[in-house]
Amino acid sequence: MDLIRHLECFAAVAEESHFGRAAERLGMAQPPLSQRVQRLERELGVRLFERTSRQVTITKAGTLLLAEARELLARSEALMATARRIRDGESGLLRAALPPDIAGETVTAILAEFQERHPGVELELGELTTSQQLAQFASHDLDAGLLHHPCDVSGLELGPVLRREVGVLLARDAPEAALDTVPLAALTPYDLILFHRAAAPALHDDVLTTCARDGYTPAAVRHGQGASFIRGLILSANAVALSPRDAHPEHTADRDPDLVWRPLTGAPLSWRLSAAWPRGRSDTAVRAFAEAATRALRETSDVSSEPPPHPLRLRPASEYWL
Fold this sequence. Notes:
Layout: H1 3-16, H2 19-26, H3 30-44, E1 49-51, E2 56-58, H4 60-87, E3 92-98, H5 104-117, E4 121-127, H6 130-138, E5 144-149, E6 156-158, E7 162-171, E8 191-194, H7 201-213, E9 221-223, H8 227-236, E10 239-244, H9 248-253, E11 259-263, E12 270-278, H10 284-300, E13 303-304
Parallel strand pairs: 3-4, 3-5, 8-9, 8-10
Antiparallel strand pairs: 1-2, 5-12, 6-12, 7-10, 7-11, 7-12, 7-13
Helix pairs in contact: 1-2, 1-3, 1-4, 5-10
């Protein structure tokens, strides 16, 4: 039995005191309305109305049950309204993540746009590496994210792929700091500071492969991602770091008297990233997050949709898509 529909019929007859008017109000014929009320009476085991050929009068039992019926109808409508808001992306919780190298201005822009467009949705935004995001997508603990490519994107849908030019962060008194652009081969005397391989294995390997191809094979690769830690290594350990211009170390470099960021000659390195979400699980909130992340990157970072100036080294399609 459709209890809610039967209660709607009961309440309408009680309020109209007339089956014909109640049927007209509900947009249905009178016989099925009478049948629904009779079936409800059988289910409840009480008589709700006294019927004569001239009038319909609610019984004492009907009066006692009417208040609870109205309360159930109100709760049902509230439930449906909440479901509609969740379905339309106007309410609920969205679990999203960004990689650690995203600039603070970009994070601020994403949050501001999303909260402006969907104030009823709670955005639970975390900082996760590409590997951590992929693991949480697989365990259904993440709704949307921002991934570094190449990576295994099977089972995911992607937003536009954007490219961030990567340069070198080095000590301001290093000889290479006087150059407008720095060849990778010129970094041979320095150790390399790079994110942990576990964070994005394919990207990590791509960076080292490109460095070697362009004449730079560092004697040691030191792992680090925090701005203060990287700064300390550069100034004290004869090391350089590779990262996008808009990332935190480069963004503060102009104000740092000891560090400087320089483009690499020929732009041999770029980091590609895109919004991502599980295939078939897109809704209004997920799409809004993907659009906000893409727009924020375009407006606050040095990103481009243009292809890189050098050809990508293709990988097996079964392993990586990009």
